[in-house]
Design brief:
Elements (H helix, E strand, L loop, with lengths): L1 H10 L2 H14 L6 H16 L14 H31 L7 H34 L16 H13 L3 H7 L6 E7 L2 E8 L2 E6 L7 E5 L2 H21 L2
Helix pairs in contact: 1-2, 1-3, 1-4, 2-5, 4-5, 6-8
């Protein structure tokens, strides 16, 4: 969705921006990593050129299959943007904001007529996703142990809660649950208990006896995700500096 929105921003298609913006709102924002930045830069460059470019800049960040998928996505959204902008072009002709050239107007009308059967389901889906995003509960501030007592895993989970619960469907299922879900997490030698439900989120050290399950993993992915989040916040601060 970020690639699609990056191309759409350059091409200025308001319909694609609305539809895919709905998807992005529903899926949620996650921390940008180096691969994401390379993807967005490549997508914008393709949009400015009007065609998929040499993917060499992505070679260090993505495998060949992923690069092929990105190129296909860029090509597909370029066509969608063109169709959306054609709709606006036809509207401008019909409202006399542009010269009413019968030949061009007929061509634009044919494109619009062909696109309508595909566009209607996408617009309906976009509206449904926006509604689901608005109805999903927000991520609350996690309840934590007293200051200075929380372990590393608890701190990481607290920082990453908005990212891990970015998806609107996941927030609705977890935070909107009428029953408090209790899950234990084990990362290396560090453990934590997560309690989520009824609009609340609580984190504690160790594995509580009442957990429904214990999920084991490595703390390194959480550290990478947290560091990517911090780096993105630092970049945003630099961008906002006058």
């Amino acid at each position: 969705e970020r690639v699609i929105l990056a191309v759409t921003e350059v091409n200025g298609c308001r319909y694609c921006a609305w539809i895919h913006g709905s998807w992005q709102d529903f899926l949620g924002e996650n921390s940008l990593v180096d691969a994401d930045e390379a993807l967005l830069a490549y997508a914008r460059a393709c949009a400015e050129a009007g065609r998929p470019l040499d993917p060499a800049p992505l070679a260090d960040a993505l495998p060949p299959d992923a690069i092929a998928s990105v190129r296909a996505t860029v090509a597909q959204i370029e066509v969608s943007n063109l169709v959306g902008n054609t709709v606006d072009g036809l509207i401008a002709r019909l409202t006399r904001k542009r010269p009413l050239d019968p030949l061009n107007a007929a061509g634009e009308a044919a494109v619009v007529a062909a696109a309508i059967p595909l566009a209607i389901p996408m617009l309906v889906a976009g509206a449904a996703l926006r509604t689901a995003s608005r109805l999903a509960p927000p991520v609350p501030t996690p309840q934590m142990p007293p200051a200075g007592e929380a372990n590393l895993l608890v701190h990481l989970l607290a920082q990453l809660a908005p990212t891990l619960l970015a998806n609107a469907a996941l927030r609705t299922a977890v935070l909107g649950s009428p029953v408090v879900l209790v899950v234990g997490l084990k990362a290396g030698r560090t453990t934590a208990t997560v309690r989520a439900g009824r609009g609340r989120l609580a984190l504690d050290n160790g594995i509580s006896p009442d957990v429904l399950m214990v999920v084991e993993g490595d703390v390194e992915p959480l550290l990478r995700l947290a560091s990517g989040q911090v780096l993105q916040e630092a970049r945003n601060l630099r961008i906002r500096r006058p």
